[in-house]
User: Fold these one by one.
Assistant:
Number 1:
Amino acid sequence: MAADKETGAPRGAALAGVKVLDLSRVLAGPLAGQVLGDLGADVIKVERPEQGDDTRAWGPPYLKDEEGTDTDVAAYFLCANRNKRSVAIDIARPEGQALVRKLAMRADVVLENFKVGGLAQYGLDAASLMALNPRLVYCSITGFGQDGPYAARAGYDFLIQGMGGLMSVTGAPDGEPGGGPQKVGVALTDVMTGLYAAIAVQAALLERTRSGLGQHIDLALLDVQIAGLANQASNYLAGGVLPRRMGNSHPNIVPYQDFPTADGDMILAIGNDGQFARFCGVAGHPEWATDERFATNPRRVAHRAELIRMMRQATILRGTAEWIAALESAGVPCGPINRIDQVFDDPHVRARGMRIEVPHPEAGVAPLVASPMRLSASPVRYRMPPPALGEHTDQVLAEWLDMDADQLHQLYLNAAI
């Protein structure tokens, strides 16, 4: 355990003692729960008996055991469910609803991503649970939010990428081969929503230390996606410029895109005039840096097509590794376009420990992506692998609710757990 540098006293996990009841499934909500769990919160994942989180069945691929044989653990489920305990409760049954209410009375946080109003029929909505526990931070994640004309609609990442403008700026330009709308290669809106949820929950917990009261957090995938448009939204709102698909080009910076090499491709991410001048020297064309068409970024943006054509004729003459070595030595931001296997084989990625292995009861070990959060005194710890369905039901109900064996047996007989 890390110690305080001044006092030498041991310091625990950042969110140690925080109890989270995670009623969510698929990606955005579970990812938020995983972030909180990584930071030390006790996260209880409530799942449907026998079925569990939808992503448990989203395979192949599946986690392999030590002999290389597929287990029944879908790889998708692994990405957002470590550092949690799984409790199987049927919330369609009155006994199950009562259990969740009791757990919520002892929780600090509830995460859920049911449709708007979907939990009210069970008495598990924000108003009902916060009436029982006024200190509860209740985070609802939906496609379109708790109000507005689309509130009742189901929301999915792909749908929101389209509606939220991301696909209008992603992909090859219209009129070029492969042009047209393109989604991002991961469920990025879900990922961003999970991160915003974790941030909002922690903010609400901090505010609770002053007010003594919890609050309801309303997070919508569409809102998050619009916020995630960043400079593209600002270009439109402030400058009246309607962004369009530009492939790998940047709307505001030139050159900032991919370039062909003798044996593949590379990325140039040139952010200022000095970097451009240094690139020109390495490329053997120092005259480009003083050419009035290219000397400043606004001029390069204005003469984008001309400059990119000239640069491509130069970059194709050397291999990727040769370019990267020369440009890095000159302080010009550049890099390869890696496949995912190359990502995890990169020496820097290995040095940063971004691939981890945690013990797993079915597979021996489960390979996972590490948390990118580096806290010097209260670091992330990988305490538990993604759980089996209902693995901790008895343990959690005994620990949180002081239930004995007879009470648990009755709940099993009633099919509540």
Number 2:
Amino acid sequence: MSATTNQRAALIIIDMQQGMATVEAGERNNRHAEANIQRLLATWRQSQQPVVHVRHLSRSPESPFWPGQSGVLFQPALEPLATEPIVDKNVPDAFTHSGLERWLHARSIHQLVIVGVSTSNSVEATVRSAGNLGFDTYMVSDATFTFAKRDYAGTYRTADEVHAMSLANLDGEYAEVVSTEEALALL
């Protein structure tokens, strides 16, 4: 796995906002995800590769992601630079009604490395769209995380189980699931 000659790979960082780092967000997995995202971000910046930050803005005033609340703010260690675009969304998929696809095509970017939260929601929705839109997509398994939840039958699933199922849903169908080390090797 490697980027083809002269191909730029965009790092897409999804919903790394302060609201995702609260206890209220729930039991989560991949406690080292933020550190891995920071490593990827530092390498992308050093390599002068494109970085896109995705921010969720809720449609519900009760949500910590309602505009004007601290939950909407980016986590300080992952704050975008002034030169890095921010894509705002109010649905899980970062491509829906956002202009992200157009922004990538205008820059001839066809390879995406996707990280962030939550694996089973915004990350999975965005990866599915990226694959369906024809992007060469990589999802970084240890630079994403999700939360525990009950399945449709009511059975409690740990965050690791929910994460593993999302990875299984995506790998080989919409994206190639890789580790942080494998993603770094793309550059």
Number 3:
Amino acid sequence: MTVLYLDDLAPGQCFGGAARIRIEPERVASFATEFDPQPFHLDAQAATQTLFGGLAASGWHTAAATMRLLVDSDFKPAGGIVGAGFEELRWPLPVRPGDELRVESEVLEVRASRSRPQQGLVRLRTSTYNQHNELVQVSVGSLVVQRRPASAPGVN
């Protein structure tokens, strides 16, 4: 595992990984029961009468699965994946029970902090796809990433 410091990152770099998460039907219901108890997440019959046309995982369930996939991806920023905020979060298609998700991320911008010289911000677009390579979530957010300490070796 190669830890990436702010100094190692540049716009256009892309990261993926082999990790996949299958959205199990019972997890759709348990997540929704606790955090988003709406009929289109809980009741398959009722969901057919909604704009989803069937049972769909909560967008927040998708976001949580995306976070796990991001942590398991090839993107390993120094200091961990520490969010500073989002400017975009969209769910263009619903995630269905049984879908298998994966992520791809692209560095959009890298900026050193003026007030905290030991760190900076990375603007990252993370796209989540289902098993059909359909985009089910896209987010653009800023992450706090540590700069390379003077004693740390460079990336090979």
